[in-house]
Amino acid sequence: MRRASTLASFPILSRSIATLHGCATATSSSASHRLLQVALYTTAGSAGSHARRPWSESFSGRKLAFGVAGTLASVAVATSLAQEVHAKEPPPAELVPKEVVLYQYEACPFCNKVKAFLDYYDIPYKIVEVNPLSKKEIKFSEYKKVPILMVDGEQLVDSSVIIDTLTEKILPDRVGERVAVSTSNADDEEKKWRKWVDSHLVHMLSPNIYRNTSEALESFDYITSNGNFSYTEKITVKYAGAAAMYFVSKKLKKKYNITDERASLYEAAETWVNALDGREFLGGSKPNLADLAVFGVLRPIRYLRSGKDMVEHTRIGEWYSRMERAVGEPSRIKE
To answer: Which candidate in 105, 125, 222, 246 is catalytic?
Structure first.
């Protein structure tokens, strides 16, 4: 009976997992295709922190002098690091929206794109985690995907559109600069790489996080632990979903002409590092919208096995660490 019940739940599971899809691909009537869609969005992980190494000095004789010097130097370094960690770019206070609410799935990379923008510009926001089965939290909207961002009562949808609209609202000086240099290489470069994130980078994620059964379970363990599921839904989605996505990932490889999942992920990471061309960020001395897009999409997988392998086998780690420091702590309002 249990097995029959589990099998009977697969059509429902397919539909519910498909709702984790996000905002970029049209819905298909095929359950298997809906599962394929969600693979682009059900990534997992959590942003980690970089602990500073402890230091110590001897406090006797000549060593005491070096200890004092070391202390002063450490204080200076700590102060510098603290400034770097909090080097966000908050907009003028009068332009900051009074109420921002993000309707999301925790593991959705496009939702994480929006959060990276909000965090970097230090815009306070609340989060509503949407239940992918009932979607009751977004019944008010005709748009049945995430992210949905409510800004002082105005509904914004589609991650890239949300970011463009917010930029116009809260960063008018930046928009003015863009208009003045609309034909500049920098502006074209930012647009090019933002488009690359949506059209290429996201497609490298699912074949990697569902590469084998253990990685699929790792991913769904995070999804069910952080998503808005009942206890029964958690069990069904975790095990049945992981099994389904393991097989769907094989179809994804064929769809996107991927022969080696990790090699394709590493190639994408190296492509991005090459685009930096020795700069700290694509935006130069500070992140631009392309930097925030790449960081947002990768943040959910960074501390999964696939993300750890990516950092270990490519040069992207230093840039990613700089982005973690630049974006800093989330500006989310916890209730």
So the answer is: 105
Q: Report yes or no: 23 and 158 within 8 Å, Cβ to Cβ.
A: yes
pLDDT, one tens digit per residue, over 232-257 is 889 888 888 888 888 888 899 999 99
Under 8 Å CB-to-CB from 28, ≥6 apart: which residues?
34, 37
Q: Annotated catalytic residue: which of 23, 108, 229, 295?
A: 108
111 as an active site residue: the answer is yes
Task: Write out pLDDT tens, residues 257-272.
Answer: 999 999 999 999 999 9
**pTM of the shown model:** 0.76
Q: Are 217 and 238 in contact (CB under 8 A)?
A: yes
The catalytic position among 23, 41, 103, 111 is 111
Active site residue 110: yes
Candidates 23, 41, 103, 110; catalytic one? 110
Closest to 33 in 3D by CA, of 49, 17, 44: 17
41 is catalytic: no
Q: At 13, is the pLDDT very low, low, confident or very high (cuts 50, 70, 90)?
A: low
108 is catalytic: yes
Distance in angstroms (rounded) separating the CA atoms of residues 90 and 67: 38
